[in-house]
Amino acid sequence: MKIRAILIFILLAIEITGFSQTLQTVDTVDLNRYCGQWYEIASYPARFQKGCHCTTAEYEIVPGKDIIRITNRCIRFSKGRSRIAVAHAKAYPDKGSANAKLRVQFFWPFRGDYYIIGLAGDYSWAIIGHPERKYLWILSRDSFMPSQKYDDILNIVRERGYSTGMIEKTPQNCDIVE
After folding, report:
1. What phi and psi, each to the nearest 5 degrees, are found at residue 127?
2. What's the per-residue H, E or C state across 57-106?
3. What is 23-169's CATH number, 2.40.128.20, 3.40.109.10, 1.20.1740.10, 3.40.50.11190?
4. pLDDT by residue (tens digit) across 30-52?
5. Are 153 and 125 in contact (CB under 8 A)?
6. pTM score over 0.90
7. In angstroms, how far is CA 161 from the centroid of its own chain?
């Protein structure tokens, strides 16, 4: 009887802390509608984006292939100067995910998980996550997002098991300082 109670306690603790929680994605993504330019509104700070402002991502389907070409851009500030930084990648939809899970490759042979965990019906905003919740991006078709919409998105982020305390807004003041 004691062993059973201990096992139940352990299983409840695991469930509460989220160790067994998988990252829920949207049901389906129409890649043709998803493609185009997105502005990064906020994100979990990532080492590879340090110093970036005015971050954008451009998605384009490669004709005749199940590949999406990605071009990420930002203005990177360092030592009082700024420059445009560009990174290119390819994304491959995971079979059986209805395009809600992508594998992104910036350089061969490494690929990372890119899960679309929130998406407006009109494709005006998207939330991108990682199954281990170490990355998060809030994207919009516009460089500005109204506060109420941002707060609504933060509620979705919380529902997906992310800490909103780690999110930082991405500056969109895009004047290049020379």
Report:
1. -120, 125
2. EEEEECCCCCCEEEEEEEEEEECCEEEEEEEEEEEEECCCCCCCEEEEEE
3. 2.40.128.20
4. 999 999 999 999 999 888 788 78
5. yes
6. no
7. 14
